[in-house]
Amino acid sequence: MQKKNRGFRIVFNAPAVLSFSLLCLGALLLNALTHGRSGRLLFSVYRSPLTSPLTYLRLFGHALGHQGWDHFFGNIMYILILGPMLEEKYGTSSIVFLMLVTAFTTGLITFLFAPGVSMCGASGIVFAMILLSSFTEFQEYTIPLTVILVAALYIGQQVYSAVAVGGNVAYGAHIAGGVIGTVIGYGANKRKKSASRNY
Is the distance from CB of 99 to CB of 20 less than 8 angstroms? Predict the structure, then answer.
């Protein structure tokens, strides 16, 4: 019996990454439609009263906002390249956790240490993914040389940019994202090795 050819179909292969990308696109379009009001209200983080519920929402929502199409494409291209591979390796829930923790941490850094700054974008998440992706091989009580090289180059570039630009808090948030990616990558791989050894 000849097998029927069903043809090609589109697969929603990375739910966390694709959903995040679509939310970022929606935030950008909404910001354009509202002439920047929604971006200021929901998708940027800045010092605001703790009595306002939107203050806490912006600690996460700022990661969805972008200043324009160039900013959006610059971040989303990296996320769409790195994210599916990471989501397949670590699982959807781990990538969602990475995004939430990174967004909150980078938002909190801006809120606490840059009272006059408004920041938006998924750069912290991008850099978390860059560092996380360097954990391709893992053995207990070892640190891959690729992780050391990527971290040194990345952090060095961020520190240099911060000094050259004049201490922009965004670079500190980027470094925080890279640290989160490194910690989650190390922890996840260590748990995976322990589980396989116990099994």
Answer: yes
DSSP 3-state helix, strand, coil percentages of the chain (rounded to 5)?
70, 0, 25
Q: How many whole angstroms separate alpha carbon 41 and alpha carbon 61?
A: 10
For the entire predicted model, the pTM comes to 0.82
**Exposure of 47 in the CB half-sphere (CA atoms within 13 A):** 6
Go through the domains of the chain in sequence order and give each one's CATH number.
15-198 (1.20.1540.10)
Tens-digit pLDDT string for the chain (199 aa) = 555 656 778 888 899 999 999 999 999 999 999 999 999 999 999 999 999 999 999 999 999 999 999 989 989 998 999 899 999 988 999 999 999 999 999 999 889 887 888 889 998 898 888 888 877 655 556 666 776 777 777 677 766 666 655 555 566 777 788 788 878 877 776 666 655 555 5
- Tokens 């922890």 sit on residue: 187
* Residue 193, φ and ψ in degrees, nearest 5: -65, -40
Q: Are 63 and 122 in contact (CB under 8 A)?
A: yes
Nearest CA-CA partner of 86 in 189, 166, 1, 2: 189
> Is residue 183 within 8 Å of 97, Cβ to Cβ?
no
What is the Cα–Cα distance from 125 to 65, expressed in whole angstroms?
12
